[in-house]
Amino acid sequence: MKRVAVYAVLVVGAFVSVFPYLMVVFTSLKTAPELNSTAPWLPALPGTLDNFVSLFDGSIANVSFVAYLWHTVLLTVVLTVGQLVFTTFAAYAFARMRFPGRQLLFWAYVATLMVPNVVTMIPLYLIMRQIGWVDTWMGLVAPYVLGSPYGIFLMRQFFQTLPADLEDAARIDGAGTMSILLRVILPLSKPILGTLTILTIVFSWHNFLWPLIISSSDSTRVVTVGIASLQGNLGADYNLMMAGSFVALVPLIVVFLLFQRSIVRSVALTGLK
């Protein structure tokens, strides 16, 4: 009976978690009349793919959904590569290199995690406006491409768990700092690199507030802002918005299916570190 009760609670929890996604699918397959005539939690029979066709055939005014998807993919790739490169260098410096004020600088930087992003949005926008990066790709990626406090903290804590004897042995063999990092440290850091990659991909793909503030044209608009733009002054096309949301969810679902083990391992690493 105890096991039955546990599984019953798990089934209810799973249903509560999955139900919003089911509503996204159901709503995306409805026409506008069906949206108002059927309950939100019931599917339309038969469903229609007209909403998806409208997203991709360019029939919606001022919406270029294909371009939004491409911009999001490009943004995700750039931010992921930048985070991996710069976060790795910074974390290794904080973990292994000795220089005056290292601990003070590290904890001062990590302390910025306590500051909500919304607090820095306006000063950051003013800086971008002063240097002419508003509505540009440089302004879109600059706040995040050079690393993040959480990523540096995560990588630094992992580097400190690696035995220092490995580096000493490499130095005896004549390896320099860069060679040690690339040939010794990084091959041992695949789990934490996978964790950082997954976290960065999810953050970059779902990022909404900063792209909304810094972008004002289709040339830099990402998919999250594109979905929000489907809501006009006279109302919201919920069926189209849900179709766009479903399309935006598909890549992350594919990432989850392909990297289930890495995602579980990343949850374990971020929980224990």
Any guess at the CATH architecture of the largest domain? Orthogonal Bundle
Taken together, the total number of domains comes to 2
**Strand-residue proportion:** under 5%
Q: Fraction of residues in helices?
A: over 70%
What is the count of helical runs?
A: 15
Briefly, what CATH class of the largest domain? Mainly Alpha
Q: Which structural class matches the secondary elements? A: mainly alpha
Distance between the termini: 36 Å
- Order of H and E elements: HHHHHHHHHHHHHEEHH
Overall pLDDT metric: 86
Stretches where pLDDT is under 50 for at least 5 consecutive residues are none
Q: Name the strands of the widest sheet in spatial order.
A: 1-2
Q: Using only CA atoms, what is the Rg?
A: 23 Å
* CATH homologous superfamily classification of the largest domain: MetI-like
Number of strands: 2
Short account of what is shown:
It is a multi-pass membrane protein. With 273 residues, the protein is mostly helical. It contains 15 helices and 2 strands.
